[in-house]
Write a structure and sequence with these properties.
Keywords: Cytoplasm. Helices cover 32% and strands 16% of the residues. By secondary structure, the chain is an alpha/beta fold.
């Protein structure tokens, strides 16, 4: 049976949304089933207007965490806030219970600069994953080392997960908000990673983890 993955994201200006759609495409191409949910907004319409935020996307709003219990794993799209979850995501986590134990979790992020929290945001997210007993699935270097080690262009992404530099303004050029072809390549590779991990997990038998029961 194809693994069921939920992509859960928050996006104020649409930068993470571009990554979401690439991630979803990659999951489908890898043979997985994917549904997309956006986190509920906590800011008022007046505040959003003053921040010049565009209208939200049409993806369903995830107001009840129980909706996610039917999925095998999650990919969280996180626009960094000081190297951490945005407040809207934290409000969602405050409503959860222990129902996500044993499920897979990965993350992809969007930052304003290459050093704006692409790794620290995922590291911060891991604390949440650990408290819920979820299994963190990083992108790793194995399948994307050549891409991530290429220094000929400024791009997002790391072994922690795919990413986008939403304000790429090198040499005084205009800001770039669309994921580059290189970033999209990394995103696509990440989306094939989680289904592969679940397949290995299912092969490992009653121990439940792809470590071949080395402690049994």
């Amino acid at each position: 049976m194809a693994p069921k993955v939920a992509i859960v994201f928050y996006s104020m200006y649409g930068h993470i949304l571009k990554l979401v759609e690439e991630e979803a495409r990659g999951i489908r191409e890898a043979g997985g089933h994917v549904d997309i949910f956006q986190i509920e907004e906590t800011l008022s319409a007046d505040v959003l207007s003053k921040m010049h935020a565009p209208a939200k996307s049409d993806y369903p709003v995830l107001s009840d965490p129980k909706t996610l219990e039917q999925y095998d794993g999650f990919l969280f799209g996180i626009p960094t806030r000081y190297g951490n979850w945005p407040a809207q995501f934290k409000a969602f986590w405050d409503k959860t219970t222990g129902a996500f134990w044993g499920k897979y979790a990965g993350a992809f992020v969007s930052t304003a600069t290459p050093g704006g929290g692409q790794e620290s945001t995922v590291i911060s997210a891991m604390s949440t994953f650990v408290h819920h007993g979820m299994i963190f699935v990083p992108l790793g270097y194995k399948t994307v080392f050549g891409t991530l080690a290429d220094l000929t262009e400024v791009r997002g992404g790391s072994p922690w997960g795919a990413a986008n530099n939403r304000q790429e303004a090198v040499g005084g050029g205009a800001p770039v908000t669309e994921p580059s072809q290189t970033e999209q390549k990394v995103q696509k590779q990440q989306t094939s990673t989680e289904p592969q991990h679940k397949e290995e997990h299912d092969k490992s038998g009653p121990c439940g983890l792809p470590v071949k029961c080395i402690l049994s």
